[in-house]
């Protein structure tokens, strides 16, 4: 699965919910005073504004339970003040927060209430945001039909507002909903539209995420060459951003795609680059996986000596983690590779080690 992106106050923040790059339409400036609905400044209004700002900061820092408390306290005050604009936005923040906690039914409840307020006060930007949240919730709840319905409504509003950044999010999320339905051609069509729009915005983070989603859809279709096309574009962006951990993940995807295409020399190049990144980061799990992929690629080329070299390194890493499941797998690979090389003494040695693990 993939990662997700949530947008707040016009700024994008990454947060993991499942592993899909989702994008939510950014809210307008929620912390500015609402002069039309709150003509008289009161101590209560000041406290509500403080609680709202506090909740937003807590949410951004990942302090979700505390943020919920701040938002709920602000909601009580704004409800008493009959400030519907603030009420609608706090309900949206509550929906976003519980959504991040993967409580999708509760997120739908808050979002539905926010949507009702947005329509009552004719706040189209809020309406588009909330419809986007609802679409993502329904997709997570395995209801892609409803997800698409909400997503299409969101897209219609956003296009009317001519909000290009929000349009990127809506198109991307529709692509994810069609993918969930199993309609991969439609998923590709929407995500390619999203890519076309985001490339006009100078937003490398969102561009990278959409490229990942496109690459994954083509990979799911078995079109590994096209998947690599998008993964390679994504790799170039991530290298410019200097994100070594994400670079390693993309190199893994590229290595797997090359293996699927039977292009083992190129798979080895990507595998070596990933191994270097893993070792620089001190990521033992990524190092173990990279060594395994390299062993498999050399094995496929019939270069058993090199395959054994990487399998033996992988065995040492697996034992240091420790990971008995991987250790057994590597011993099996070593036994097979040594047999192919004709090194029967090593075959017996690794076979005995494998038997010893069963005792």
How are the secondary structure elements laid out?
Layout: E1 5-8, E2 11-14, H1 43-60, H2 64-80, H3 84-100, H4 104-120, H5 124-140, H6 144-161, H7 164-181, H8 184-198, H9 204-221, H10 224-241, H11 244-261, H12 264-281, H13 284-300, H14 304-320, H15 324-341, H16 344-358
Antiparallel strand pairs: 1-2
Helix pairs in contact: 1-2, 2-3, 3-4, 3-5, 4-5, 5-6, 5-7, 6-7, 7-8, 7-9, 8-9, 9-10, 10-11, 11-12, 11-13, 12-13, 13-14, 14-15, 15-16
Model description:
The N terminus is likely disordered. The chain has 16 helices and 2 strands. Strands 1-2 form a two-stranded antiparallel ribbon. The chain has 359 residues and is mainly alpha-helical.
Task: Bin the strand percentage.
Answer: under 5%
| DSSP, total strands | 2
Structural class label = mainly alpha
Please give the count of helices. 16
Which segments are poorly predicted (pLDDT under 50) over 5 or more consecutive residues? 1-21, 28-40
Nearest-integer average pLDDT: 88
Helix-strand pattern, N to C? Answer: EEHHHHHHHHHHHHHHHH
Instruction: State the assembly state of the protein chains.
Output: single chain
| Strand line-up in the sheet with most strands | 1-2
Helix share bin: over 70%
Major sheet: 2 strands, antiparallel
**In angstroms, what is the radius of gyration?**
25 Å
How many angstroms does the end-to-end distance come to? 36 Å
